[in-house]
Amino acid sequence: MNIIVMGGGLVGVATAWYLLEGGHSVTLLDRAPELASEASHANGAMLHASHTEPWNTPQALGQLLRWMGREDSPLLLRPTQLPRLMGWGLGFLRYSRPHHHARNTAVNARLATYSLQRMRELEAETAIDYTQAHNGILKIFRHPEEMETARASSRLMADSGVRHETLSPAGISQREPALADIQAELAGGFFYPDDASGDARLFCQRLGEKAVERGLTLRLGESVQRLHVKAGRLRAIDTDRTTLEADAFVLATGAEAPYLARQAGLRLPIKPVKGYSATLPVGGLEAAPRLPIIDDGRKIVITRLGDQLRIAGTAEFTGYDRRIRPQRVERVLEQGLANFPALARQVDTRQADQWACLRPMTIDGPPILGPSGIDGLYLNTGAGHLGWTFAAGTGRVVADMIDQRTPEIDVSGLTLERYQ
């Protein structure tokens, strides 16, 4: 088949890769001049099955009300967005009920575990160097009640094969000496030995290069303008350059997917959620951490990438505003470096590369994969903060669906049918 993949981030490139493996003729489109230019560019750099809980936790409503309008909050709802979020927001809160949240955490954990297996296979097959490390991930807590809540999620995820080890504050310091200075502040933590880390942008671009060697046609700097649906089938798309026909299309444009889907009469329950990151040079600094760390209370992740340290976090409901707000980046840096007082005295935060992106969040948490209900149009979108973790798995699942093969994992809770 001749297949067009719309979206040149991790999800789109991984989907194109597996479609090429199936013997298809594949074209990948993206509006940016290079792959991984948007949400895949400078994310938290973690490949984790350990952090798959949807953001709409049972505590979400209280947190949103408490933090509304506060620039220093990890979860920020800008009041100007309230009218646009009304319907979606009520659904977001409905799915925050404990039984919904537990079910969707399990769905995400199942997909993440599968995806990390596929990722290890891809890494072995392609020999791509993306500053990867397979050292596990450490999650830390300052309050016992937060740790107990996370303990319940860790038990739930363990049913999907997500192994974890409980650590005392002293055990955390032994595992990561860079945290020794704040040991007295910690209630404990968990270590997830099967998780990994790596530069998502490097991986995406290098996998794209190898895909081109296998026959992928890349059309970069070209944006999709219109979807042509006739008699219930998507037959062609207009770009800003030309009209392209294909046997099948995959919509993998992240936060932009609802706009394009709406042209085909399809409403996707996805909203953009802005996240920020800062990347600092730390080469030669002994106080820099070696392990990837999730600071659960502050909603911050910290990842070593060779001689650099990536600090990322926050969830900001601000519509399609892509501006990098310096005060938000400064807050991410401040909260991340608070875990390493000695390092904070050594680094110059003015050297940080700042980044912001829009992550596509579904109303319930898991991504939307597979048939759209419109012949010829398939979906791979809505991964939220887990796009890097899910990319290999969702790419393989959607390729299997297009080829009418039964996916290797149970896809219940992952298709559009769950909303019907």
UniProtKB/TrEMBL annotation:
UniProt-listed InterPro entries: FAD-dep_OxRdtase (IPR006076), FAD/NAD-bd_sf (IPR036188)
FAD dependent oxidoreductase domain mapped to chain residues: 3-401
GO annotation, biological process: D-alanine catabolic process
Keyword field: Oxidoreductase
Family recorded in the similarity comment: Belongs to the DadA oxidoreductase family.
UniProt xrefs under NCBIfam families: PRK00711.1
Name of the protein in question: FAD-dependent oxidoreductase
Organism listed in the record: Spiribacter aquaticus
Taxonomy of the source species: Bacteria, Pseudomonadati, Pseudomonadota, Gammaproteobacteria, Chromatiales
